[in-house]
Amino acid sequence: MTTVDTPVPATTGRSPVKGWLAVLAVTLGIFSLMTSELLPVGLLTPVGTALDVSEGTAGLMVTVPGLVAAVAAPLVTVATGRVDRRIVLAVLVGLVGAANLASAFATSFAVVLAARFLIGISVGGFWSIAGGIALRLVPDKHVPRATAVIFGGVETASVLGVPTGTFIGDLSGWRTAFAAVGILGLSSLACMVFLMPRVPAEQTIKFADLPKVFKGNAGVRAGVAMTFLVITGHFLAYTFVRPILQDDGVDDNMIGVLLLTFGVAGICGNFIAGALVAKRLRQTAAGISVVLTLAMVLLALVGNTALTAGAVLVLWGLGYGAVPVTFQTWILDAAPDTTEAASSLYVSTFNLSIALGALFGGLAVDGLTTTSVLWIGAVLAALTLLVVGGARRTAAVSAE
């Protein structure tokens, strides 16, 4: 989910220890940003109640940063093309820390949305730079593992950040959850300042590259389409999983635990997909579609108790946890010679889909029923099978 800078050979004699400390600082930063972007998913009800807005309107806390990040991904990359990458990353993660602290002390929903706008800038810009930073920090032989660790920060935050934040919010209130993530962001800033070396900038992407790679590469188009369908469908439903479970009578104190269960399952899904994508990439992508569709349908149909909801969320977590590594691999395989432009499109699509999912989910919750988002999300996830099938046919024709 990142735009990769042009590989720069590691400097001879660079200390692996210092390089790994810098990698861990970037990983903590990515974890902070992704957790910040998705934190409101588990806190919609308490935030909406405290600031006197509907749950659908509260969903804008996810929509706004997603939309902004979709635009910021290429803009920040190009605009900061000559600035030291350590400075850019430090400023962006520091902005996240400050914005979350502002949310924690907000007295109106407008202040929260303004803070979420700033978070969107940080998320888009940080992702667009950080993915290739391992190439600049550690010796060549350590680059694959270091890059995996950085991507692991994104994936771990996606599946654990929200439930952990929800758990903190249930224990001490939603303001405490935002404050905790704000402190995490400032801690990440300190780590980058003290642990990262200077990383001279190398501008490697231009706006003109984006339409070229999209129009000229069917694999990239398929990857972008799959990302749009799966991520929009997932966040359309998952953003409102708390009110869905509450409507089913699940005890409010159990929801944080259930989302933690989702997170643990997501980590497992990530490792399972990581073992499969090298040889079974298309099958893994198709499997994600099937698993997510089934999970949403089951949550809509089954009369949920904490036990049955937990079982469905395990299934859902397995499916969604497999998404980042699978779709990122798809994009890189489709465009091995234009990874910067292709990955930038992926970043923008991923974040735009988060925003649209939360936006349309809010409209459906306010205008239809709460469970309607599960059915709409299931349809979008199921449509991904058509994209995978179409990509397979296109590849077969090209091979001939």
From TrEMBL:
Residues 22-396 form the Major facilitator superfamily (MFS) profile domain. GO terms for molecular function: transmembrane transporter activity. Its main location: membrane. The keyword Cell membrane applies. The keyword ATP-binding does not apply. The chain crosses the membrane at residues 20-39, 59-80, 87-111, 117-135, 147-168, 174-197, 218-241, 253-278, 285-307, 313-332, 344-365, 371-391. PANTHER family: CHLORAMPHENICOL EFFLUX PUMP RV0191, PURINE EFFLUX PUMP PBUE. This is MFS transporter. It comes from Streptomyces himalayensis subsp. himalayensis. The lineage of its organism: Bacteria, Bacillati, Actinomycetota, Actinomycetes, Kitasatosporales.
